[in-house]
Amino acid sequence: MKIARRGLPKGWIGTWLFALAAVTSAAQAAVLPGALVTPPWLHDHAKQVQIVDIRDSLGSLTNDPKYATVNGHKVLEEVGGHIPDALSVNFWGLRQKHVIDGKKIDFMLPTAKEFEQTMQAVQLEPGKPIVIVPTGDDATSLQEAAFFAWELQVFGVPQEQIAILNGGMHAWTSAGYDVDTDAIAPMSSSKWKARAPNPALLATTAEVQAAQRAHGLLLDARPLAQIAGLERTPVVPAAGRLAGASPLPAELFYRNADDGSWRFISAHVYRKVLAGGGVQRVAPGIVYCNTGQYAAGAWFVIDRIMGRKGLREYPGGMNEWEQRGLPVVSF
C-alpha cells in the first residue's frame, strides 16, 4: 500500500532529517560554555558530555589520591583515580613514529587513520561535546590536554564541541566530587571518524622556512631557558631556536591555584600578562616548541581562550627541524 504525500515537496524527508541533524548538532555544541569548564559545571552537566581523561601515566587511574597535612589541614598532593564514567586517552598515543628522509622520527603528528583508530579504541562518540580532563597536578598536564584539543580540531571536531576542565582532576578532587579508581577498560570500538588534517591549524617545514624568508611571525613557545639555548631536552640534538623566532615563553601561560591545581587564566589577564612579558603579536603566525605540547598550550590560550585566530602549529618542532639537518641559532 502506498501512503499519499499530497502537498509535500519532493525530497521533504531528507530535507527534514538534515535540518533536524543540524539543530541537534547546534544544541549539542551549545552545551559547552566555552573553552574552559569548572568542576561544578562539569558535575552538573556530566551526562551531556563525553568526559575524556588524558594523562601520561595510566597507572594512576586506579590509584587512590595522595594527601598531605599542611598546617593541620588535609591537602591533595597527587591525583589518583578518575571522574566516574570517563573515557581514557594515553597522551603518548597521540604521537607516532614516521619515516622522513629515510630516518625514523618519534613524537610526530599521527595520520588521520592513526588518530581515528586511537579515538575508536577509547570509544569516543561522534558529535557529542567533549570535556578533556588533565591531572592538573602540573602545568605539563594542561599542555597535554591542549595538545589533545588541538589534534581533535585538526582532525575535524568543531571547536564548539571541545573544552578543558580547568584545574583538571586536581581541582575536581579538591572540590570534593566523586573519584572512581576502577580500571577504564573499553570492551568495544566506536564509529568515530577523522577528517583530513585541517591546514588552517598546521604548518609544514616548508611553510616555516617560507615564514623565515618573509619575516613572518614565528613564535617559540618553550621555556625561556630553552629558547635562549641554555637548556635543551634529550629529544632535541642541539640547543637553540629557529632563526627569526620571537619568544613566547611557556612560563606566561599557567598559574598554581590555592587548591594546588594548575590552571589556565582568563583572556583579559592573558592580554595583560603577554603585554607585560613584551609579547606584542600573537597571530596570525606559526608557533612551535620541541615536539608539540608547549606550542599546543600557547595555541589553546591564544586561539581558544583569547579568540585570536590564525595561529598555526608546527607540530614536529625542533625535533623534526633538527632531525632534518636544518640550522638553529643561539643568543
Please, could you describe this protein's structure?
- This protein is an alpha/beta fold and 331 residues long.
- It has two domains: 32-174, 3-Layer(aba) Sandwich (Oxidized Rhodanese, domain 1); 205-323, Rhodanese-like domain (Oxidized Rhodanese, domain 1).
- The protein contains ten helices and 15 strands.
- It has helices spanning 12-29, 39-45, 112-121, 139-154, 168-174, 205-213, 224-227, 267-276, 293-305, 317-323, and strands spanning 36-37, 50-55, 66-70, 73-78, 87-90, 96-100, 103-108, 130-133, 162-165, 218-220, 246-247, 255-256, 262-263, 285-288, 311-313.
- Helix 4 (139-154) packs across helix 9.
SSE map:
Blueprint: H1 12-29, E1 36-37, H2 39-45, E2 50-55, E3 66-70, E4 73-78, E5 87-90, E6 96-100, E7 103-108, H3 112-121, E8 130-133, H4 139-154, E9 162-165, H5 168-174, H6 205-213, E10 218-220, H7 224-227, E11 246-247, E12 255-256, E13 262-263, H8 267-276, E14 285-288, H9 293-305, E15 311-313, H10 317-323
Parallel strand pairs: 1-9, 2-5, 2-8, 8-9, 10-11, 10-14, 14-15
Antiparallel strand pairs: 3-4, 6-7, 12-13
Radius of gyration: 22 Å
Q: So, CATH architecture of the largest domain?
A: 3-Layer(aba) Sandwich
Query: Could you give the count of β-strands?
Result: 15
CATH class of the largest domain equals Alpha Beta
* Biggest sheet statistics: 5 strands, parallel
Helical segment tally? 10
